[in-house]
Amino acid sequence: MRAVWVIALLGLLLGRGLTQESPKPPANEKPAAPRETTLSFAGEGERWWWTESAKGEPLSPPQKTSDASVAIKLPADADALWVYDAKTGNLAQLKVADLKEKTELTSDRFSHVARVQVNLQAQGKPVASAVVQLTDANGTTHTRVLEPSAEGVLIFERVPLGKVSITARYGDEGKASQETTLKAERETRVPIIELALSGSVATLEVAPKGREGQGDAETPQASRIGTIVMFVIALALAIGVIVFLVRLATQKPQQLGEAMGKLGVELPQPTPAGQGSGATAALAAPPMPDLPPLESAGVDPTAAPIGATATVIAVGPATRIVATQGPYAGQAFELTGDLMTIGRDAAQAIALVNDMGVSRTHAQIIRQGDQTLIEDLGSTNGTYVNGVRISAPTPIKPGDTLQLGASLFRVE
Fold first, then answer.
1. 362, 403, 386: which is closest to 155 by C-alpha?
2. pLDDT tens, 286-343?
3. pTM given for the model
4. CA angle (189 as vertex; 187, 194 as ends), nearest 5
5. Can you tell me the distance from the alpha carbon of 159 to that of 161, in angstroms, rounded to the nearest whole number?
């Protein structure tokens, strides 16, 4: 009898287990999947976009678009979408949670300046050291330390548009402040704020541009010497031709006439006495043919006439940079991408890890069609093109020289 009751109980429990419904997932839980959005702009133009996590860490390198719209697949852990307008130098910060399937990005949604440059000077010289605070329109204070290696220049990134206040503290009790307004429409992509300090200020001696490295000084000098030598050679050849023609005309006029006749040039003949009014007969002026080189007069066919300007033959866009001085002397770096960053960080497209004078993210090279530009990214020691420190994207071409830290490059 006890066995019957045990079997009945087991059957009852088994029946309830089969009829019980399986647990359902919470209603608010959605399957993880990449999100997508299509950004549409007011028109075509160069723009760059990238995503960041909630901690502000980039999830992918910036990608370029020139179209009026672009479809973007957002990573699952993306928190913000940043868009950079290359024409204005402004940034748009979009929260991924607020994006729609189609998002229209008008000019008023570009709310930040990508980079703001602050120059600190005293008595016309760069300030050596200071603590600089920039308070933006949102009330957030950004603090930077000015070191002597920065040569009086500080860069603040992602500054909201609107009123900003700059305060510099220096020396024992020195302090200087200035207010300005960052506008969406301005003359330069990187606004420059000049802050003059007074009193007891440590400054730096201004070195002549292009003298920081011996290579920078040698290259322009060699070019100037070569130009002078070529000018002297051309001048000597021209003087020799003139002297030769003058002697030939005075000593052997008949031979000169025959030689010029072979070239298609007819010289005037002397008028016999008693004929005409004594006036010189006019030269016949037939159409001038393409004259061959004056080989008989010793003239180099490639020599330019005096005062002529040499013609520079375009050799096409830059394809690589070759190190001529520094830790990477003799090494070539190919320019294969539309946007290539240069820096001491091993993750950069052109990594100069052995050059301690190069910042971790120093500069970037941008290719736009047949044009190649280099832009400094707020480096400590600056970027130089042909010996001149740049503060904005600067075109480069084969034959130019670049200096980053202790490394000197030739553009090819």
1. 362
2. 444 444 443 333 434 344 444 444 444 445 788 899 999 999 999 999 998 889 999 9
3. 0.47
4. 75
5. 7
